[in-house]
Hints:
alpha/beta; 4 helices
Amino acid sequence: MDFAQSGAGALEKIANAGDASLILILSDINMPEMTGLELLPKAKALRPDVPVIMITAYGDAETKRKALERGAEALLTKPIDFPLLRTEIDNRVQQAA
Length: 97
């Protein structure tokens, strides 16, 4: 696992990953410097093979639509349902294996 404190930091880590195995990108929508919705298409352009799960405090239909249209595999709302998050992560790990 690796963590970034901002969208720009996440993009840098994704771009510098090279041939490293990336299994999943988990991103909040509300971040400094760049929103998760802005990050999403840029991350998918760099690594279209890596699924992205977005997290938000705003689980409205419009936010979900935007996230899914921009390439997110799923949108989870806060407070996080940790068993659901675990299931999503396990599914992505299995698909990557």
